[in-house]
Amino acid sequence: MTKLQGKVAFVTGGSRGIGAGIVKRLAEEGASVAFTYVSSREKAEKLATDSQSPGVNVLAIKADTSSDAEIDAAIKSVVDTFGRIDIVVNSAGLFITGTIDAADADVAAFKKQWEVNVHGVVHTVRTALPYMGTGGRIISIGSTGGSRSAYAGIGDYAATKAALAAYTRSWARDLGSKNITANIIQPGLIDTDMNPADGPYSSSMLQSVALGRYGNPTDIGAAVAFLASDDAQYITGVTLNVDGGQTT
C-alpha cells in the first residue's frame, strides 16, 4: 500500500523542475494530484498523462499564482473534480535577482516576484483551507536563501522565502488545533532549468555543498511525500533543508 493512497493534493507550479518532481512522487505514492502551470500546456498535459495510474488521477490546470481569481478558479476545479483537498504544496515561484544599488533594477519584476512567492502562497492556503479536513498538510517550497545570504543580488528573492518560513511557523500554531500541519522545505542547489548543474556558476556554488553535487527534483519530491504522509503526523512548523549540507 502506498503512503498517500486515496489522498488529494494540490500543487502550484507543478509542470517543470522541482514542481514536476513533486507531482510525480505524490502520484507514485497513490495521491490524486491537481497542479497548476502558466505556460507550456503541452508539457503540463504530458506530465499529467504520464503520472496517472489506476486509481490515481492527475489534472493540469492553467493558473497564475499571482492572480487571486485564477487560484480561486483552480481550487474550485480541484474540489469539483475530487471533492476535497488533503495536501497543499506551494511550489510556484519566481527567481529575480539584482543588487539593491542597481541603477537598472526591474522594480516591476521584483513586485511580481513578491506577488507569486508570497501573496500567491498566502492566498492559496487561505482559499484551500475550507476544503481541508483534519490531518491536512500544507507544505511550502522555500530556499536556503531564506535563511542565509550566500550571494550578492538575491535580497529580494531571499526576502520572499524568509517570509514563507515565518508564515509557516505561524500557520503551524494557527492550525494545530485542527490537526493540520504546516512545514517548509528549503532546497539547496537543485538541477533544474532555473539553476542547471552545468551552469556557468555551478562550480563555484558547489564549493559550499558538503556532498559536492547538485540535488535532483526527485530529492524534493521525496521530502514532500514524507511530510505529506502519516509518518510525519507529529511534525509541524519545521524548516527542512534539503541541500546536500550546503547550510551546515
Automatic annotation (TrEMBL):
Keyword Magnesium: no
Keywords: Oxidoreductase
Family to which the UniProt record says this protein belongs: Belongs to the short-chain dehydrogenases/reductases (SDR) family.
Span of the signal peptide: none
A GO term, aspect molecular function: oxidoreductase activity
Name this polypeptide is given: Short-chain dehydrogenase/reductase SDR
Organism: Spirosoma linguale (strain ATCC 33905 / DSM 74 / LMG 10896 / Claus 1)
Record-annotated Ketoreductase domain positions: 7-193
UniProt keyword Lyase, yes or no: no
